[in-house]
Amino acid sequence: MTTKDIKCLLINPGAHRTLLGDEIRNNGTCISIIRKPDYSEMEFSHQEPDYDVCIFFIGKDEVNPGKYSEFLTRLNPPAIFILENKDYELAYRLMKAGATETVFLQDATNEVISASVIKLLDKKNRTGSSQSYKPFIDMMCSLFEPTRLGFAVFDMSGSMLHFNSSFQQVLGFNKTRLLSMKLEEICYSDYVDEVYYYDDLVSGKIKCFELERPLYNKEGNLIWCRIFVNLIKGREGKPEFMVMTMNDITERKQSFLQLEKERYYLQRLMDNIPDAIYFKDAEHRFTKVSRYIHLKGISNPDQAIGKTDFDFFTKEHAQEAFDDEERILRTGKPVINKVEKETFPNGEIAWVSTTKAPLFDAGGNANGIVGISRDVTEMKLSEEALLKSEERYRNLVEYIPDTIAVICGNKIVYTNSAGMSLLKAPKMSDILEESIFTFIHSHYFPTAKRFLESILCRKKPARANRVKLITLSGETIDAEITGLPTTYNEKPAIQLVIRDITDLKRQERIRQTTLKILQASNFTQTTEELFRYIHQAVGSLMPVNNFYIALYDEQNQVLSFPYWVDEEDEQMLPKKPGRGLTEYVLRSGKAMLLTEDDDLELQKKGEVDLVGSPARIWLGVPLQIKEKTIGAMVVQDYTREEAYTENDKETLELISYPVSRAIERRKNEEQILEYVQQLKETNATKDRFFSFISHDLRGPFSSLLGFSEMMLEDFESLPHEDLKRYLEIINATSRNLYNLLNNLLQFSRFQTGRVQYNPSEYNLGELVSKNVDLLRGNALKKGIHLTTETTINRAAFVDEEMISSAIQNLITNAVKFTPRNGSITVKCVQMEGEDKAMISVCDTGVGMDKDTLDKLFRIEVIHSTSGTEKEPGTGLGLILTKEFVEKNNGRIWVQSTPGKGSTFCFTLPLS
Prior knowledge:
Blueprint: E1 6-11, E2 23-26, E3 29-36, H1 41-46, E4 53-58, H2 66-75, E5 79-83, H3 88-97, E6 101-104, H4 110-129, H5 134-144, E7 150-155, E8 160-163, H6 165-171, H7 175-179, H8 183-187, H9 198-202, E9 208-216, E10 222-233, E11 239-248, H10 250-272, E12 276-281, E13 286-289, H11 315-331, E14 335-343, E15 349-360, E16 366-375, H12 377-399, E17 403-408, E18 411-415, H13 417-422, H14 445-458, E19 462-470, E20 476-488, E21 491-500, H15 502-523, H16 527-539, E22 547-553, E23 558-565, H17 581-588, E24 592-595, H18 596-605, E25 617-625, E26 628-637, H19 646-714, H20 720-752, E27 760-763, H21 764-774, H22 776-781, E28 785-790, E29 795-798, H23 800-816, E30 823-830, E31 836-843, H24 850-855, H25 876-887, E32 892-897, E33 901-909
Parallel strand pairs: 1-3, 1-4, 4-5, 5-6, 28-30
Antiparallel strand pairs: 2-3, 7-8, 7-11, 9-10, 10-11, 12-13, 12-16, 14-15, 15-16, 17-18, 17-21, 19-20, 20-21, 22-23, 22-26, 24-25, 25-26, 27-29, 30-31, 31-33, 32-33
């Protein structure tokens, strides 16, 4: 081309006035630039263009760039678009509309633009040269037109020259757009891995090439085509043009791709799913296995191919799997989620859930097996643990001592065995479907109703509530109920935990009663008041219409009944222990709950005798202190045998100790009060006694001092007869003082507990006669007739010295108060009907009046008395005599008449 050969029309240069300039030179070619400020479609539609190439500049602020696409579609001129924005989407739209070249502004140098212009014009010229091959092209088009095979012809630059209707139908573009497409645009693809053949074909290295590639049609849908491109040479052997055939294989390719996708997914599934997936043929051989197949002895799953279950498992397990698979092949029915126990030859065990299904050939015949096995060993172990846990929970619920019950609509729909026991139900059906209010005491209906409603409304557990329940046997029990919301058969329900607190409340009542009894000994004033309080306290725990307390005095062997309340019998008087039920408890030291029949049985055995009215039920417990039984506490009922139970027996046993302590404390307090009173009396008596003794001692000592002084002063002048008489008086006075001092010494020993008690067996008749003979001389001095009458020849277990002193004191006292020529009789006889001896000293002396008798044996009123011949006396001898007799388990008393004499008697137990 020569200078100014090429004219270019530059449309809408905008602010880019310096773009391109007025002309561009490129290798001797001059390109003139004609500028127009804007695009006019009418101008291009009605005038023959006087330019060779049209250059459009689309600025970044272009509002409607789509108008250029319309221009290209209508006129299809050689056009170059320069885009100020790097807008790939717009560039693609322009390319589809037929834009020959698209350049971004940042790349739009004079060299790039001039090269594009020259290239477009070369293409146009080559298109014109191809007209010589028009007959051949027309022949090929007529040949391929009726077929569904697309046909197109391209020049050696890759520009399309012609195409048939099938080709256009496949891509869907109009004629103008198709003719603007390049061969390389059709052949090049990012979706295929084949070698890019286009350059080799153009260069003559190859004559043809074939490939499959995806294309986008006019609607933008992806289609797959099989393309065959062949090089056509001219007469001189020079490549002239290229022929392309195109076949739409979208449907086949999609099927293939879908199959490939499924194969891919299957392989990924087999490679990644932790379940074991495997395929077997009709001979049960593995044909394909997943990586997670659990087979022993192989390191690679492919090693299982061609083998059977018999190569990996025990014969028993492999045979069971073989039989299942034969059944599947025969029936065509799958095995779904069968839990199997896999046993390996080394003894290892695993649990799997297996699903197996048949594989069919084209004829519908089962020719293989596909299986999926999931290792459920952990789940199986968890299930077994859960079952064991459920069993433990079931056992816990079933055997827990508390009642577990489920209430739905106020009806009992479930309860454990403890519920049957609590409500005294012979069988479960006696409770189920019964209203809960059947077993609640009517007094507690409002409380129970509010309790149950609060659980259902708040849907939260409720705190413990106490009510009274009525069992099927009619027994009333105390219960503590807690509840929480639950469901039963998808209906709102309440789970109750019922605890029998009857014993707990009984223990609490016992504890409170025990505390009250122990405190009662502090605020009650008398023993009688204490016993009444004990009676009332026991009455808060059980019926006490017939109640008594018996106390045993071990020292005196007397059983007394200080507190007695009875509907049938009068109060028992103190007595020696016999063979009644009370004594039976005292002897055994154990609590006894006896029915009338039990009492009769004991009577038949000779264990007890019937005392008082027979009771239908008799309950007695021993009262003990430090393992020593001090008495018994008894309740009884004359009409109802069921009035007392073993619980009542246990209750009475529990409170017997505090009762014993309270009684002991009361006795100790009374004894202390008695000791205090005795101490006061003793101190007063001591004062009077020492005053009396001082007086009685002063008289004799005054006499001794007087006579001794007279003898000292007149010793030389006193006649022998007076001296002898004085000495006799001194001797008698000294003897009386000695006797007085000896009595004082013995009395002091008694008071301080220092008297030695040495009992032994002695014949009382001989002991009495011996002591009478010792004092017979004293009686003769006063002319008193002393006689002895003994009709007993039995021994007694006594202290000889004490009894001898007692006999001598009584005889001496009788001699002192009997005038001359009187008589004294000493008797020793056995009391009629008793194992006791009675010793008496009877005199004909002066006797005593009642006032004197009342003062005998009492230290606090002791006074001096003189005998019939002025014999001195203090009364201390009688006090000692009483102490001696009682020390030997005897009793002393006196009978006297003034002027007629006195009789002193005392008893002693015989051996």
